[in-house]
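ingest -> validate -> predict -> emit
validate: passed (alphabet ok, no gaps, 583 aa)
predict: started
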Amino acid sequence: MLLGLAACLLVSYSVKSDESASYKLASRGANSMFALQGNPMRELIERYESDRSALARFFPISISPSRAERFKKLYADTRSDLNGVNFGGLDADGKLDWVLTENMLTYNERRLELDEKERLDAVPFVPFEKDVIEMAEARQRMEKVDGQAAAARLDKIRDAITEKQKALDKDLADKKKFDKPVIFRAAALTDQLRGHLREWFEFYKGYDPVFTWWCAEPHKKADEAIVAYAKFLREKVIGLKPDDKDAIVGDPVGEARLMEDLRNEFIPYTPAELIAIAEKEYAWCEAEMKKASREMGFGDDWRKALEKVKTLHVAPGEQPNLIREQALEAIEYVEKHELVTVPPLAKETWRMNMMSPERQKVSPFFLGGETIMVSFPTDTMSHDEKLMSLRANNIHFARATVHHELIPGHHLQQFMNQRHKPYRRSFSTPFWTEGWALWFEFLLWDLGFPLSPENKVGMLFWRMHRCVRIVFSLSFHLGKMTPEECIKMLVDRVGHEQSTAEGEVRRSFGGQYPPLYQAAYMLGALQFKAMAKEMVGPGKMTYRQFHDAILKEHNIPVAALRAKLRGLPIEKGFDPKWRFYDN
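emit:
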């Protein structure tokens, strides 16, 4: 049955040479059965994503040189297939897919180079890296293990750690010898490699009695040495408090990496220019804050107005009801004003969960999508933590963000992405994801969604927050601000609680998000705002047509989306140089 199916597949994918076809077959050995036909770019992208996912699962060690080499080959093979596509024979969607694929490959190839540099910076402080990677990957290749030789290698790992720790101990008096972020990265790599070594050991333990006899004790000692070494790096070399799980160190990526990431997004601005844009937007927010403050009777002292708004929270246990009401209000509003089409199933299927106290240390406010994750005090929090969480998740802050997380924000986005051009998920960008949701905050403000000055303060708090996110995140990655200075900026310039400011900075620099993610909210929203100015109005599109068209193109860089929706030429070497804030 399987052989027959394979034969059918080979027949169905075989084609004759045709000058007018929008492809030509590229030679890829065994993969040549995946000839491109129908929509050639969709098939190419879907195959790439499947191959990438398979390789990521097979090479789980992110710092493995062999993993990097294998991904380098994947990118080269995909580029070969891409160059085999007849670009001129593609329709508008196909051409857009082509340039986005080429852009993605260029970025991924460059990222391999930058990641290797970061790895080489940290490797001198991880003396057992090579041994663990080789052992783990030999197991992945299902090579037979020699228990006695493995035990000797485990002892070698323990001894290498001992020697490295002794050498570092001698230099502890001069802290300037150590680059704090590099040591922090080395400690994280140490933790990661420990996990891979444990996985390697557990695979054989008990199933191979000879291996277990040789390796049980050496693995235990090596594991203990790795744990102690990670603790040594964090507490002795970096100077963190013992077992401080909430410490924020971060790893500034530098201007070269920021510029590479901006190029990948087709954003023709420098980090310094983006910070200047953020400051200009912040000035607008502050002026509006003062207007709302005067309406509330606090004059120009908007911080007093903000403090008042923070006291306007519901009682413990009532937050889920509030969020439900605010979600339904937002849906009714966008439908009444014909801003976007909301499919009935999207309205029916969103859900709610309450966030754990531990998760709130990283995400002190809401998270969203099909399920909105609600932050609010729990019974296990300290008294001060409860008060800060109540203040941070007040009625008016919530009203300004529930629609960001659900409809018309992230839930609607995800709902539509699953149903329109889902193969484009490889191109996903936070400038589209977060920019869309914040753009609706802009639009709802302009249309009069805030019903009171307290509502306005709530919306402006978040808008100021997104401005300051650009300033502190880019400044940190440029090496101009410390995490402590970032926290202070959020408290002083936005009015955050100390705990929520810490949570925001921890979230920003904890490694879960790419360097530009925090800047993407405001900058993406400004891109959508510029697009709307060009495309919406009398004789043009309505807001509903504009937003529906966006949602049917999936999550892609906003400059590329603009080119598609406006019917602009899309050619090889696509680089629109769209100065969206200067228009």
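Residues 1-37 have pLDDT under 50 and may be disordered.
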